[in-house]
Structures are given as C-alpha cells and as structure tokens.
Design a protein that fits this description.
- The protein is an alpha+beta fold.
- The protein has one domain.
- Strand 1 and strand 2 form a beta hairpin.
- The radius of gyration is 16 Å and the shape is globular.
- The relative contact order is 0.17.
C-alpha cells in the first residue's frame, strides 16, 4: 500500500519539516496544558523505569521541534507521546544508561545521566505504520527524568544483539 500524503494531520512528504514543526509545537502545548489540568503535574509515568517522566517545553519541546520533524514517523511518535513514554522499554543488548555529552543542549540542561528506551509501533493493516522510536530521557541531579528527544530509528534484530 502506498504511503498517504497525510496521516492523522501529519504531512508525510520528506520535505515538509516546517509543517511538522508547527504540528509538534502544538502537540506539546496541548499535552502540557492537558497534563497540568488533569494530573496537576506535567509528567507521564514510565512502567519500565517506574518513574515520572516530566515534559518541559524548554527542554522536551525545543529538542523535539528539531529532531522529531525530520520524518513523519517521529512526529507521529510525538503525537502519541503519552503511550510512548508509558510503554517504552529497553532493547536487549542495548545499554539503558549513558553519560551525557559535555557540549550542546545535554550540557546546557545539566543532565547527569541519560536513559534510552524504545517503543515499537505495530499495525497489521498498514506496513508503513510499523516502526521503532528511540526515547531519550535526561536525568537531573535530583533524579527527575525529563523527556529529551524522540525519533524514529532503524533497528536490525540479530540473533545475539541489536544494531541501531
């Protein structure tokens, strides 16, 4: 089946970065407002790490408006961010934690550690809806986990290990 021009309001054309950037910005604003109104806090619980993952327009939204607009799948993942954060988990043979970079945004946001989890979208009807996204969480000194980035990745499953 051919990829449609739009999926749930997300333009699938590879050159539609600006349109997707606007969609991502609006998704974050709506999500933050809804979380604050319904839960009293701007966080989503991750079942695997057993932690609240906080959403911050300054950190999460800013990074996502760049990295999550490069392809429609990453923008789709942002649109489904609550489900992704709640159900993301590690891949076998891929370390969960790593030291943040000492330059750029990871340094600017003062992360002491990063956690990387994955979520697999599955759809029996449409092959193009089957893909994996990587969710990166920045961890602060006080232990708070902040959603840092989300992006589609290619995963090749091998018998003993995964390659990204």
């Amino acid at each position: 089946m051919e990829l449609p021009k739009s999926i749930e309001g997300i333009v699938t054309d590879k050159n539609a970065t600006e349109q997707r950037r606007e969609v991502v910005k609006n998704i974050y604003l709506e999500l933050l407002e809804r979380l604050q109104r319904t839960k009293g806090k701007k966080s989503i619980y991750n079942d695997f790490l057993c932690v609240d993952v906080y959403i911050s327009m300054r950190e999460s939204g800013k990074k996502a408006s760049n990295s999550s607009t490069k392809n429609w799948q990453s923008t789709y993942a942002v649109k489904n961010l609550e489900k992704v954060i709640k159900n993301a988990k590690p891949l076998p043979y891929v370390p969960i934690y790593k030291i943040p970079k000492t330059t750029g945004k990871q340094k600017e946001f003062n992360y002491v550690n990063l956690a990387t989890l994955f979520y697999e979208f599955k759809n029996n009807k449409y092959e193009y809806m089957n893909f994996t996204v990587k969710l990166t969480l920045g961890i602060k000194n006080d232990g708070r986990h902040i959603q840092y980035s989300i992006s589609k990745i290619e995963v090749q499953f091998l018998e003993n290990k995964n390659t990204l």
